[in-house]
Amino acid sequence: MLQTALAAATGDLMVIQDGDLEYDPQDWTAMYDLIAVRKVADVVYGSRFYGLPHRALRFHHYMANSIISLFFSVLYDQKLTDVETCYKMFTREVRDSLRITHNDFGVELQLGAQIVLARRWRIYEVAIHYYGRTHAEGKKINWKDGVKALWYLVKYRFVS
């Protein structure tokens, strides 16, 4: 679905945001400012870990995300606090450089790997609001996705 949406997009800026109401569209303003107004960024990641009010995550979800983001930073030599965020904005040029094949949570790491390994995009992070859901409310991610994420980190750095 993401591949279809990105292929059909015609604007100069692209936004990826989960449609499950965990993220606030008003946070686009800070992203837009960095790319379109100040023209200092090509890609802006929303980070749930920069201190804006957000629903408290379960500890194991927070730790898994922190470990994945840390491994990403080490393997790709790019510090990102929330590589698994489903909230980012980037230019058409960035979109045109992407080759997305995943239809699961691996798409976040595939996007991140391609963006970072290009070594030409100016990447920023901004604080975002986060209204996380529980499994009872429909959250679908589990420990198996964390294991797959660690494999994807290695795969996109050394295999692909």
How would you characterize the overall build of this protein?
The protein has about 160 residues and is of the alpha+beta class. It has one domain: Alpha-Beta Complex (Spore Coat Polysaccharide Biosynthesis Protein SpsA, Chain A). It is about 45% helix and about 10% strand. It has 6 helices and 4 strands, in the order αβαβαβααβα. The chain has helices spanning about 1-10, 30-35, 60-75, 90-95, 105-115, 145-160; strands at about 15, 45, 85-90, 125. A 4-stranded mixed beta sheet has the order 1-3-2-4. The chain is globular. It starts with a helix and ends with a helix.
Features:
single chain, 160 residues, Spore Coat Polysaccharide Biosynthesis Protein SpsA, Chain A, 6 helices, 44% helix
Give a quick precis of the structure.
This protein is α+β, with helices and mostly antiparallel strands. The protein contains six helices and four strands; from the N terminus they run αβαβαβααβα. The chain has one domain (about 1-160): Spore Coat Polysaccharide Biosynthesis Protein SpsA, Chain A, CATH 3.90.550.
Layout of SSEs?
Blueprint: H1 2-8, E1 13-17, H2 28-37, E2 43-47, H3 59-76, E3 87-91, H4 92-97, H5 106-117, E4 123-127, H6 143-159
Parallel strand pairs: 2-4
Antiparallel strand pairs: 1-3, 2-3
